[in-house]
Amino acid sequence: MERVLRHTDRVAAALATEILSGNWPEAHKFPADTELCDRFGVSRTVIREALRLLSGKGLIMAVPRRGTHVAPRHNWALWDKDVLGWLGNDQNENNKYDFSGDALDMRLALEPTLAALAAARADAAGNTALQEALRHLGQTLDLKSEMAFLGAFYAAAGNDFALSALPLAEFSLSHRDTAPPLDAYRRLTAAIAQKDGATARRAARQAVLQAFLPQ
After folding, report:
1. CB 206 within 8 A of CB 187
2. CA distance linking residue 173 with residue 167, whole number of Å
3. Contact 97, 120 (CB under 8 A)
């Protein structure tokens, strides 16, 4: 069963890349199951499980008597962790779709508000976790440590929906060519500890923008 699941994940990721890159546009008809079996060297069971997975993410739809087609983009579950992972793994410059700007827009809309909430709600444990994550990030400067810092930041906001947005932040950061904006993160951390919501908002916005400005 584990082997089947690995094959299913591999096939689903490859098919999702065809869709998310725009190589297979909306309404594109999928190849027959037998053709997909030959392409990936797997059984029809694996293909059907992969298609079921993509259907659950809103990427494909079955059209009666016409087969399986790529679904309209407005149906795609772009906030889904798997979908964002597939997007992050596919950074071909020939892609017809560019979601990085949209992800940046959403972070700019979300993170300043989370910063103000964290300034109002973070307790001693939340502040300590944030400061520890910042210290570790300063020592490593890698994506894993930055995501740990953002996780502590989002958690400090005290909103159960917030942590669900972390995969979006990780996808956004996967497109960044600059170093983590440590100075802005330091200002953000200090403002949250000082319960200064206005400064926390500004620092959060600066952190998002500075991460994508040329150095």
Report:
1. yes
2. 10
3. no
CATH 1.20.120.530 residue spans of the chain: 100-210
In whole angstroms, what is the distance from residue 69 CA to residue 71 CA? 6
Length reported for the chain: 215
Reading the chain (215 residues) residue by residue, the pLDDT tens digits are 455 558 999 999 999 999 999 999 999 999 999 999 999 999 999 999 999 999 999 999 998 888 999 999 999 999 999 999 898 776 555 567 778 889 999 999 999 999 999 999 999 999 999 999 999 999 999 999 999 999 999 999 999 999 999 999 999 998 888 889 999 999 999 999 999 999 999 999 999 998 666 54
The CATH architecture annotation of domain 2-76 reads: Orthogonal Bundle (1.10)
* Maximum Cα interatomic distance, the chain, rounded to a whole number of Å: 63
Chain centroid to Cα 159, Å, comes to: 18
Query: CATH 1.10.10.60: does it fit domain 100-210?
Result: no
Question: What residue ranges of the chain are covered by domains with CATH 1.10.10.10?
Answer: 2-76
